[in-house]
Amino acid sequence: MPHYRFIATDAELASVLGRLIDEPRYALDTEFHRERTYWPKVALLQIAWPGELVLIDPLEVDLSPLRSLMECDSVAVLHAASQDLEVLELACGAVPRHLFDTQIAAGFLGMSTPSLSALHERELGVQLPKSNRLTDWLERPLKNAQLDYAAADVERLLEIHDRLTDQLARLGRGDWAAQECEIMRSRNRGPREPLEAWRKIKEVRHLKGDALSIARSVAAWRERRAAEIDQPVRFVMSDMAIVAVSQAAPKSIEQLAKVRGVDKGVARGSLGEKILAAVGEGAEINWRPPRPEKRREDNRDLRPAVALVAAWVNQLAHDQQLDPALLATRADVEALVRGDDDARLATGWRAQIAGEPITRLISGDAALAFENGSVVLEERSRRSVS
User: Fold this and answer.
1) If DSSP codes are grouped into helix, strand and coil, which group holds residue 373?
2) pTM above threshold 0.85
3) Which of 94, 191, 212, 354 could form a disulfide with 207 if both were Cys (CB 3.0 to 4.6 A apart)?
């Protein structure tokens, strides 16, 4: 059972930060909820460093001073950090200046997006407690079993950091992992663009003409409203209601109240007028999706080449003990084959291991062959089989 201190006052947090500033690294994790809110609500923050482990209660403590820790030169070690970074940015306005994500690092050692529990079992031979994974972290007081569960997530994360960095160094992949962690760290986590919210509604993608323009406008209104009152978008208006409103294009409260999926009380209240305003705006602007930019040699059928190259990339990832999804998606392969300037396989470590050989294949200087059940990239003989 991990030993930890529970931090529930601003003075205690200040003392912790005073000690952490000089640490070269620390392990960090968060517990949060967003099922009932638009913005993730942090419920607990766990930090461990050699000889210490603290659990910080954000319901009692102002987390804004954490910004000083985020901006110092210490390395923050997290697992699957994407959502934790969003939580930290909201809580204190900053993310760690230096990040090591153990899930990303494990991908360079052949593990496919492992869970924290799987990583503990593989690297340390220990099992993390699982019984409180889906607990309500906003409920107070927190039970001892909940606190033990939360503490275990960071208790030995620095040991895993040591093991992963040693393995990466032996394979010469430390810089690769660092590049990917920096991409994760510096990714834009700003508010979602309301005018792009319609793309997340499957049924809306099939709408045409004015109905699509109205759906885009109403979905944007819903997104802004949800952010304003901090509630999930589905609590404001269902996807089905947006589609139905877009198809019906109501012009009055009475018409809106008859639309399937729209609550009559909502329609006749103050929100009804705002929904109608969004409908009117969508109809007036008559928006249409922009046409895709023409790609060079866009008339080529790239599917056979992409399929073959993707098979080789998957084989390469297996041979090199890399997570295939980390090396390249099918979209990444297609972008490089098509010649996109921003293709991920054309830069960084991906170009080194896969992009450059694929470019030689596209230019005709290399060929793909099957050998012992595997796809092999080899020098082209330029001798015709027939």
Assistant:
1) coil
2) yes
3) 212
